[in-house]
Structure formats: structure tokens, C-alpha cells
Design a protein that fits this description.
Strand content: under 5%
Distance between the termini: 126 Å
Number of strands: 0
Oligomer: single chain
Largest sheet: none
Number of domains: 1
Radius of gyration: 51 Å
């Protein structure tokens, strides 16, 4: 509402300035009788009406520009709010991804522990298998030795 009041006041000031400028241009020294010719009066009135039309057009242009700026400002605010919403959504997504990555790290640590347990079991199995094979070889040698002796 305030910009419209300012525009109206500006329009009135411009109209007054145009009228005084038109009067200064058309002012002629008054004749001895103090009467101006009717043609001069008509010309003055015509100039005043043209000046008022020009000021009215300028005022309308200013109002259109102010409305356009207001619309542009509202659009920019809407765009800014949309960007803020996108940023919030991205932050939430990053938080979710961070949480998921920490869960994956915990699972990897658990798998490492399981692999360590399997590795120690495998080492024990290898030792037991080596002993078993050594015993089997000794038994085969014993059997072969007994067979040859007979």
C-alpha cells in the first residue's frame, strides 16, 4: 500500500511540475486590457491535458514496473524456499547414508572377527590333519616293513 501512495504523490508532483513548465512556456506579457486570446487559452489547456496524459502514462508504467518487481520478488522467494527444502532433503539423505555406512562398517568388523575365528580353526585343522597324515604314513611304513619281513 505504501508504494502506491508514493507513486500517487510522485504522479501529483510530476503533474504539478508539468503544469508549471507549460505555464512558463506559454506565459506572455499581458496586454493592456489584461485579456488573452481564446486560441492561446485553448493551446494552454491542450498542453496541460497532454502533460497530464503523459504523467498518467508514466504513473501507469511505474505501477506496472512495481507490480512486475513484486511478482519477481515473490517468484524469487518461492525459488529460495524450494532450494531450502531441497537442501534439507539432501541433508536428511546424507544423514541416512552416514548411518547406513556406519552400519556397514560394523558388519565388516563382525565379518573380520568371524574370519579370524575361521582362520584359527583352519590352523588347528591343518595341524590335526598333518598329524593324522604323519600317523597314516608311519602306519603304512610299518605295514610295508612287516610285509617285507615276512
Amino acid at each position: 500500500m505504501l508504494p502506491r501512495k508514493v507513486l500517487v504523490a510522485l504522479g501529483l508532483i510530476l503533474a504539478f511540475a508539468a503544469v508549471t513548465a507549460a505555464q512558463d512556456k506559454t506565459a506572455t506579457p499581458k496586454s493592456a486590457a489584461g485579456k488573452q486570446a481564446p486560441d492561446e487559452d485553448r493551446a494552454l489547456l491542450y498542453q496541460l491535458s497532454e502533460a497530464q496524459r503523459g504523467v498518467g502514462e508514466q504513473l501507469q508504467d511505474l505501477q506496472n514496473k512495481v507490480e512486475n518487481l513484486t511478482n519477481d520478488l515473490a517468484e524469487a522467494r518461492d525459488n529460495n524456499e524450494a532450494l531450502e527444502d531441497e537442501v534439507k532433503a539432501m541433508r536428511e539423505e546424507v544423514k541416512g547414508l552416514y548411518w547406513e555406512s556406519s552400519q556397514v562398517k560394523q558388519q565388516i568388523d563382525g565379518v573380520k572377527e568371524d574370519i579370524g575365528g575361521v582362520d584359527s580353526n583352519l590352523t588347528g585343522f591343518r595341524a590335526a590333519a598333518g598329524i593324522f597324515i604323519a600317523v597314516m604314513i608311519l602306519l603304512l611304513l610299518l605295514i610295508a616293513g612287516l610285509t617285507v619281513r615276512r
